Amino acid sequence: MIPDSKLKISFQEMALGGAEVLAKRPKITFAQAVEQAQRLKRDSKISSLLKKSR
């Protein structure tokens, strides 16, 4: 069995890993981000009644 100390990862290590993933992603413009959000909202299979109202 692997000791718990070897399984734990620090918040700093997780943040660095996340930063690396984000750095590798292609850059998108604000307009592209808005279009993507609208497309996801339009294509959502979840009923509007099930979504939380905000």
The topology string of helices and strands comes to HHH
Q: What's the story with the biggest beta sheet? A: none
In one word, what is the shape? Answer: flat
Tell me the helix content: 55-70%
Kindly describe this structure:
With 54 residues, the protein is mainly α. The chain has one domain. Helices cover 59% and strands 0% of the residues. It has three helices and no strands. The model has no long low-confidence stretch (mean pLDDT 83).
In short:
This protein is mostly helical. It has helices spanning 4-7, 11-24, 30-43.
Write the topology of this structure.
Layout lengths: L3 H4 L3 H14 L5 H14 L11
Question: What brief labels describe this structure?
Answer:
59% helix; 3 helices; 54 residues; mainly alpha
